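Extended Data, panel c. Modelled sequence:
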Amino acid sequence: MPGDVLSQSEIDALLSALSTGEMSADEMKAEEEKKKVKVYDFKRALRFSKDQIRSLTRIHENFARLLTTYFSAQLRTYVQISVASVDQIPFEEFVRSIPNMTLINVFEVPPLDGNILMEINPNIAYSMLDRLMGGSGTSYSNVDNLTEIEQKIMTNLFERSFENLREAWENIADIDPVFVELEVNPQFLQMISPNETVIVISMNTIIGETSGMINICIPHVVLEPIIHNLSVQYWMQSKTKEPTEAQIKALETKVKESDLELIVELGKSAITIEDFLTLEIGDVIQLDQKIQEPLILKIGDIPKFTVQPGKLKKKMAVQIIESLNGGEEDER
């Protein structure tokens, strides 16, 4: 019984059977080898490892949070979206699992090849439409009779919602989702062969008082060029990239355009509180700075240059004499 923990009495019975000849070691080995044989269904080819499925789950959990924020802002009502399951199944099985009349948004995701499907349960879709039209979010299913205005409203809503996928996928691929078409009958979808493996991300969706499912269908052919990015090693490695020459130049330009506060101190003096309280206009305060000594120019609180005072175009000015090593003021 591989994987099971035997009790002491079961262990004793097994040893007793071996010692009395009721069971031979060869029979035990044959039984163990027989149990190792597993049935494999070639129609349900497993193209993704468990590790890659977990990575896709994390990515689309983030996508679900982004969709929750987006739809909440657009519909101005309570919205909750969460990932219910992530499975790999044949495309034909996915088509059979969704309603005969539903809303299916087809997207391209360049530079990757192939299309991604976003299927929205009609109850959810019409609840969204009712909210957008000023209603309370009442759901009524009438997918086969969508007017052109209703199609345009829904297309705009779902097209902008799918832009959140770019942010959710940014750690594995730089994609640019593009809306292709809105389909209502899944039987008309001929984008891949029926037996092609697809990843289906099912998300529980609540819009006000209405609940339903949103399904994302991603064919294996779309993920194949970036499938190595779904491994644990890729997620664990540093995502830090060396800046390009253009980025460095742009940063230098921005830094050079920054404003700095320059301070030149004429000197310092210490007086008593009594003298301070009796100061009047015309009084002279003696500073500790000698006239023949240069002044200190500071950037912020850091001394950077020695300067001499003067005038430029009828304004006070200073001329730089030399820089201070290490930005520290020399003790005088």
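The first helix runs from residue 8 to 20. This feature is highlighted in the accompanying rendering.
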